[in-house]
Amino acid sequence: MLFTTTEVIIDGRPHHIVGTYDGAHAVIYIDSYRVLRTVETRSLDTATVALEIGRVPVSGAYFTGSIDEFALYGRALSS
């Protein structure tokens, strides 16, 4: 699954970005503001590709900033 948002961040400051999936919706938050909510009913446990953080699989482009912390939970956290 690939989810994107049209939000553009070019201010050079750190930001908190969170993605959640609860079995019905995929949601992306940037600095606590919801920037994407879309219906998604596919199951994550059927994924057959590696999880990639900071790389766009289709184009192969890489995120040019730094990623301070990454966490993966087995459930969707509340906003």
Sequence-ordered SSE layout with sheet pairings:
Blueprint: E1 17-21, E2 25-30, E3 33-39
Antiparallel strand pairs: 1-2, 2-3
Characterize the main sheet.
Answer: 3 strands, antiparallel
The share of residues in helices is under 10%
Tally the beta strands: 3
Strand % is 15-25%
Low-confidence stretches: none
How big is the Rg?
Answer: 13 Å
How far apart the termini lie comes to 21 Å
Overview of the molecule:
With 79 residues, this protein is mostly beta strands. Helices cover 0% and strands 23% of the residues. It has no helices and three strands. A three-stranded antiparallel β-sheet has the order 1-2-3, with no helix packed on it. Strand 1 and strand 2 form a beta hairpin. It is globular, with a radius of gyration of 13 Å. The two termini are 21 Å apart. 0% of the residues are buried.
Structural features:
single chain, about 80 residues, mainly beta, three-stranded antiparallel beta sheet, 3 strands, about 0% helix, about 25% strand
Please provide a brief summary of the model.
The chain is mainly beta. It is built from no helices and three strands.
